[in-house]
Amino acid sequence: MTKLTIYEIPEPVLRQKAEPVENVDSTIAKTLADMLETMYAGHGVGLAGNQVGLLQRLVVVDCAGEDEKPNPIKLVNPRIIAHSEDKVCHNEGCLSIPKEYADVDRYETVIVAYQDEYGQNQQIAADGLLAVALQHEIDHLDGILFIDYLSKLKRDKLLRHLEKKRRQKMEEEQ
Ligand code: NI
């Protein structure tokens, strides 16, 4: 497996729409395995194709708790086919917006249809953190980031904070 480079804002690929995967072949299976490894290395709970520079509708998630055994899910062409009326608020982060967090409202439960790494059609009914993560990752495939749901004031504050950290890091490295 290969650890991939995670693209961070403002990389344009994060704002582009990923294309549907036509053939779920061994290359796709390899990419999904690499994405999972990259996600674990970054201590994330989800990762989408755009985040590793691939405009393919690929998502990996693992929402198992620290004391639980891993529960990796690899999704090709995931789409939400049903969701609850109710929403829940969750403090979200993103490997492409490192170490910045904000509260976002998402549907409490979703049903997601997708193909697995063997090209088989699957469905998953999700609630809790998994429901949040799936919505966050599917957004990535459409070029949407969690900061898009914030007020301009909150978003600007978060982005300024990120820039400040980046400047400090650059100065430390000089
Ligand atoms: Ni993200």
Structural key phrases:
binds nickel (II) ion, 174 residues, two-stranded antiparallel sheet, single chain, 5-stranded antiparallel β-sheet, 3 helices, alpha+beta, 7 strands, Peptide Deformylase
Provide a quick synopsis of the model:
The protein is built from 3 helices and 7 strands; from the N terminus they run H-E-E-E-E-E-E-E-H-H. It has helices spanning 26-41, 128-141, 152-173, and strands at residues 46-48, 58-61, 73-83, 87-94, 97-107, 110-115, 121-126.
What does the secondary structure layout of this molecule look like, with pairings?
Blueprint: H1 26-41, E1 46-48, E2 58-61, E3 73-83, E4 87-94, E5 97-107, E6 110-115, E7 121-126, H2 128-141, H3 152-173
Overview of this structure, please?
The protein is of the alpha+beta class and 174 residues long. It has one domain (12-173): Peptide deformylase (Peptide Deformylase). The chain is 30% helix and 28% strand. It has three helices and seven strands; from the N terminus they run H-E-E-E-E-E-E-E-H-H. The chain has helices at 26-41, 128-141, 152-173, and strands at residues 46-48, 58-61, 73-83, 87-94, 97-107, 110-115, 121-126. The strands form two sheets. It has a five-stranded antiparallel β-sheet with strand order 1-2-3-6-7. It starts with 25 loop residues before the first helix and ends with a helix. The model has no long low-confidence stretch (mean pLDDT 97). Bound molecules: nickel (II) ion. Nickel (II) ion binds at residues 94-96, 136, 140.
